[in-house]
C-alpha cells in the first residue's frame, strides 16, 4: 500500500506542477490552456478517487455512499482523460464529438450506481465489480484507441514532428495499463500523467517550431518587400538622373563580387561575413538616394557642372543618410539603417581625405562606403552619360590602379584588379567595342 500511495502522490504532485506551469505559460491560447487544465485536473481527481477506494477497501469504511459518488465521478472521468489529452493537442472538434458520446457513459454510470450494476461498496466499505463492469472497461478501451489514433493524426498536422515522442507516449501508456491489468499494479494514472507531460512538452515544441517556420517565412517576405522598395527608390532616383536601372543592378553586383573576393583573399575578412555581404548587395542601390534633393536642372545638365552647381550636387551625399533614415526608419533594424546610411553618405569620400561630405580618410571611412566607391566609379567610367562617352574597360582599370591609395582603399583596389575578368563578365554587355 505504501508503494501505491507513493505512486498516487507522485501523480498528484506531477499534475500540480504542470497546472502551475500551464497557468503561467504565455505561449498558449486560453482554449489550449483550458484543455490541458481539464486533463491535469481530471487526472488528479481520478488518481485520488482510486486511492480512496483502494484504501477503504483494505481498511474498511462506513462511508459507502460518499465512496460510491466519488467512484462514479472517477469512472465517468477516466474515459474522458484521453479525450482531454487529444483536445489539448489541438484536435478540438474530434475531442468534443467523442466527449459528447462518452457523456452517455457518464450518464450510464450515474443511473447504474444506486443499483450496483457496474460496481458497489458493501456495508463494510469493501469494493466489488458487477458483471456489467465491462461497460466501463469497454468505454475505457475505446477512449485509449481514440487517443492512439489522435496522437498519430496530431503528428501529421505539424510540419516538423518527432515520431519517437509519439511512440514513447504509447509505450508508457501501454506499460501503465498493462501493469494494471496483468499485475494489479495501479500505475495507470501515473502513466497518463507522464504521457500528459510528454505531450505538453511535445505540443509546445511543435508549436514553437511551426511558429519559428512561419516567422522565418514572414521575415523572408519582409526582406523581399525591403528589396523591392529599395530597388524602386533607387530606380526612381536613376530615372531623374536620365539613367536606367542597369546602373543600380551592376553596382550591386560589383559590390557583392568585390566584398566576396576580398573575404576570400583575406582582405577585411573579419568584417565581411555572409550577413554583411548580403546587406551590402541589398543596400548598394541606395547609394545615390540623396540625389532626391538635387534639382533636375543639375542632374540632367549635358555639360560640365560649374563650381556652384557641383557644390549643389555634393549635397546628395551630405543628405543621403538623412534621406535613408526617413525612408526606412520603422521598417527595419538599426544595423540595416546604419549600413544604408554609411553607403549613401560616404561613398564619395577619398582614401587620402580629399573627398566629401566629411573629408574622412583611410579606415575612418566606413568599409561599405569604401567598397561602394570602387563599384560606383568603375561603373560611371565604363557607362555612357549625358555629359560623356563610355570609357574602354582597360582604361577604367588603369584609373582604378592609379588612384589606389589616393581615391580608393589600396587593399580593396588590388582585390578589384586581381579579379578584373569577373567584373568584366558583369559589366561587359553595355560596353561598345573599341
Chart the SSEs and their pairings.
Blueprint: H1 2-24, H2 30-59, H3 64-77, H4 80-88, H5 92-112, E1 119-121, E2 127-129, H6 134-157, H7 163-183, H8 188-240, H9 245-264, H10 274-283, H11 296-299, H12 307-313, H13 315-328, H14 334-346, H15 367-382, H16 393-402, H17 410-418, H18 420-427
Antiparallel strand pairs: 1-2
Helix pairs in contact: 1-2, 1-8, 2-3, 2-4, 2-8, 3-5, 4-5, 4-6, 4-8, 5-6, 7-8, 9-10, 9-15, 9-18, 13-14, 14-15, 15-16
Describe the structure.
The protein is an all-alpha fold and 434 residues long. The mean pLDDT is 81. The protein folds into 2 domains: 212 residues, Rhopdopsin 7-helix transmembrane proteins (Up-down Bundle); 190 residues, Hypothetical protein af1432 (Orthogonal Bundle), CATH 1.10.3210.10. It contains 18 helices and 2 strands.
CATH architecture of the largest domain: Up-down Bundle
Helical coverage, percent range: over 70%
Main β sheet profile? 2 strands, antiparallel
Q: Give the integer mean of the pLDDT values.
A: 81
Strand adjacency order, main sheet: 1-2
Radius of gyration: 37 Å
Classify the oligomer: single chain
Number of strands: 2
Task: Give the overall shape, derived from the CA principal axes.
Answer: rod-shaped
Total count of domains = 2
CATH first level of the largest domain: Mainly Alpha
Low-pLDDT ranges: none
Distinct helical segment count: 18
CATH superfamily of the largest domain: Rhodopsin 7-helix transmembrane proteins
Beta fraction: under 5%
CATH fold-level name of the largest domain:
Rhopdopsin 7-helix transmembrane proteins
Order of helices and strands: HHHHHEEHHHHHHHHHHHHH
Structural class: mainly alpha
N-to-C span? 101 Å
Amino acid at each position: 500500500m505504501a508503494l501505491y500511495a507513493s505512486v498516487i502522490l507522485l501523480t498528484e504532485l506531477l499534475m500540480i506542477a504542470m497546472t502551475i506551469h500551464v497557468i503561467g505559460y504565455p505561449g498558449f491560447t486560453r482554449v489550449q490552456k483550458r484543455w490541458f487544465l481539464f486533463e491535469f485536473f481530471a487526472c488528479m481527481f481520478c488518481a485520488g478517487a482510486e486511492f480512496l477506494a483502494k484504501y477503504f477497501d483494505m481498511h474498511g469504511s462506513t462511508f459507502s455512499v460518499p465512496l460510491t459518488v466519488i467512484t462514479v465521478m472517477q469512472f465517468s472521468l477516466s474515459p474522458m482523460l484521453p479525450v482531454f489529452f487529444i483536445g489539448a493537442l489541438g484536435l478540438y472538434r474530434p475531442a468534443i464529438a467523442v466527449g459528447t458520446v462518452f457523456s452517455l457513459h457518464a450518464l450510464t454510470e450515474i443511473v447504474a450506481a444506486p443499483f450496483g450494476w457496474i460496481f458497489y461498496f458493501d456495508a463494510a466499505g469493501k469494493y466489488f465489480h458487477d458483471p456489467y463492469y465491462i461497460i466501463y472497461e469497454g468505454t475505457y478501451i475505446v477512449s485509449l484507441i481514440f487517443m492512439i489514433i489522435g496522437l498519430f493524426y496530431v503528428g501529421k498536422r505539424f510540419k516538423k514532428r518527432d515520431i519517437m515522442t509519439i511512440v514513447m507516449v504509447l509505450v508508457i501508456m501501454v506499460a501503465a495499463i498493462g501493469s494494471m491489468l496483468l499485475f494489479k499494479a495501479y500505475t495507470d494514472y501515473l502513466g497518463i500523467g507522464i504521457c500528459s507531460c510528454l505531450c505538453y512538452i511535445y505540443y509546445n515544441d511543435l508549436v514553437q517550431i511551426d511558429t519559428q517556420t512561419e516567422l522565418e517565412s514572414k521575415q523572408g517576405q519582409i526582406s523581399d518587400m525591403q528589396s523591392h522598395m529599395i530597388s524602386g527608390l533607387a530606380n526612381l532616383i536613376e530615372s531623374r538622373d536620365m539613367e536606367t536601372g542597369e546602373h543600380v543592378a551592376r553596382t550591386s553586383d560589383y559590390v557583392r563580387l568585390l566584398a566576396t573576393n576580398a573575404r576570400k583573399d583575406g582582405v577585411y575578412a573579419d568584417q565581411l561575413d555572409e550577413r554583411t555581404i548580403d546587406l551590402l548587395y541589398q543596400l548598394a542601390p541606395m547609394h545615390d538616394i540623396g540625389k532626391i534633393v538635387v534639382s533636375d536642372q543639375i542632374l540632367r545638365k549635358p555639360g560640365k557642372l560649374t563650381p556652384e552647381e557641383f557644390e549643389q550636387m555634393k549635397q546628395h551625399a551630405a543628405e543621403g543618410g538623412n534621406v535613408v533614415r526617413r525612408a526606412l526608419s520603422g521598417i527595419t533594424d538599426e544595423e540595416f539603417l546604419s549600413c544604408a546610411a554609411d553607403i549613401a553618405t560616404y561613398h564619395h569620400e577619398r582614401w587620402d581625405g580629399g573627398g566629401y561630405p566629411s573629408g574622412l580618410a583611410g579606415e575612418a571611412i566606413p568599409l561599405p562606403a569604401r567598397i561602394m566607391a570602387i563599384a560606383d566609379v568603375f561603373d560611371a567610367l565604363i557607362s555612357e552619360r549625358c555629359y560623356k562617352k563610355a570609357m574602354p574597360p582597360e582604361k577604367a582599370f588603369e584609373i582604378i590602379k592609379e588612384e589606389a591609395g589616393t581615391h580608393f582603399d589600396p587593399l580593396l583596389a588590388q582585390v578589384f584588379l586581381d579579379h578584373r575578368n569577373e567584373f568584366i563578365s558583369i559589366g561587359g554587355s553595355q560596353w561598345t567595342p573599341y
